[in-house]
Amino acid sequence: MRAVVAKRYEHEADLSEIVGLAEAAGYEVAATRTQKRTEDAAYHFGEGKVSELAGLCVREDADVLVVDNEVGPYQKFNIGKTVPEGVQVVDRFTLILEIFGQRAQTRKAQLQVELAELRYELPRAEAKTSLAKRDERPGFMGLGEYDESREQDIKSQISRIRDELDQIADTEETRRERRRESGFDLVALAGYTNAGKSTLLRRLADALDVDENADRHPDLDDTAVSENQLFTTLGTTTRRADTGKREVLVTDTVGFISDLPHWLVDSFHSTLSSVYHADLVLLVVDASEPVERMREKLATSHDTLRERNEAPIVTVFNKTDRVDDAALRRKRDALSSLAPNPVTVSGLEGTNVGRLRARIEDELPDWATERLVLPVSDDAMSLVSWVHDNGHVTQETYGGDHVELGFEAPPPVVDQARARAAELGDGGPTGDGDHAGGGNSAGNSNPAGDGDNAGRATADDTAGQPDTPSRSEQVTESEPDDPGPPSRPRRR
Ligand SMILES: Nc1nc2c(ncn2[C@@H]2O[C@H](COP(=O)(O)OP(=O)(O)OP(=O)(O)O)[C@@H](O)[C@H]2O)c(=O)[nH]1
Ligand SMILES: [Mg+2]
Known about the structure:
Layout: E1 2-9, H1 16-24, E2 28-36, H2 47-59, E3 64-67, H3 73-82, E4 88-91, H4 92-103, H5 107-135, H6 142-181, E5 185-191, H7 197-204, H8 211-214, E6 237-242, E7 247-252, H9 262-267, H10 269-276, E8 280-286, H11 291-306, E9 313-318, H12 325-334, E10 343-344, H13 353-363, E11 368-375, H14 378-390, E12 392-399, E13 402-409, H15 411-426, H16 459-463, H17 471-477
Helix pairs in contact: 1-4, 4-5, 5-6, 14-15
The structure holds guanosine-5'-triphosphate (GTP) and magnesium ion.
The site of guanosine-5'-triphosphate has 22 residues, from helix 7.
């Protein structure tokens, strides 16, 4: 399929992105044209330009005319009348939808594409209805009625798809909470399309045996494919990465792009929810591009994040293998207000990935510190090993019939450990008077002074806490790779 690509501009005639999009949709770009002018109400371009484009389509034997602007329904109709019959007129948004439609593999991705298509169609159907109504006269009722029912039909399909996407979002939210409660920090890769997110995901997660989890997680078995084209990744891929002390799940997802109408961004909201609900966002930028292009893409990325993201953002300048040090320094300085203190890496060559890991660890929300005294028993030993799995043990001292366990962990893990320790006490304390209750925390046990100690669990406290999950629930919760039942864990 061959395409002629055209763009109307008022400031800058950059065709690289629209050409990239056309290629990503599978077109061979045969010719390009630009025109500097204000928008023409009837033709979008000037009428003469549209005739020229029509001639070009004939000469190049084009199947589509791609226009890098938002073309109104009437403008599209007029351009369509001018170009040779059979040549389709495609604007920036329909082109993006075409790419998404071709690549959508999961149910969620398909629903999102369908939703975006319907939302694109809705105002057009509404316009037709109102036109039909205006023209309505006796004996000519059919058209108006037909269009009105189409409008209703679109609206009810939109609401059906929204409901289904909401359900999927709930399931994902439950899974995210479960992972958090199991001690994982959730890190999301965000950034403009083609910045190198998927390449970085593979770098960060290379220590993980993904196959081990592939059949348990719908989103672990996807491969995070990298390709030099726009929108290679559409779904969501999550992998485990070990940054040292913390266990991190890194999620890679769809890239951002500029000039998208809000309804299109909204349609993909649930794909971006892994970004909006992360503990930390890595905002990846292609540092091999001219600084002004980087600035625009950073601005687009921040705009997309701003609305919903609350997590700290670390900017990652990627592809540094293609920039010399002096240029990189200049870019860092020029962009310091949009990207303070960026980490510079090459995902392709692996340069500075260690530094990125360390930075992730630094920027993640602090862990709480705790010390527990447990009676020695099989259950206590399983709690000790669970704490090893889900936190960072700083002290493990055995004395007679008890064990003292000092550790750092995410607050939800500390809460669970306290509750489980308190339950050990319920089964019949084995400790002496000092450690009565078995599960009592040792005094002065929080050197970090994180203020999270006020409700320190004792056996009695726990009995009065309706929120404490039973031990069997905890076992399920400690299984991070189990998507689990759809119900939401009660705590947090
Ligand atoms: N030279 C160089 N190329 C890189 C680097 N990182 C990624 N690339 C290349 O950049 C292109 C895009 O990389 P991806 O990892 O697919 O980028 P992405 O951000 O996941 O892109 P989408 O999924 O399309 O949004 C691929 O051709 C990669 O090989 C890097 O550090 N240096
Ligand atoms: Mg990708």
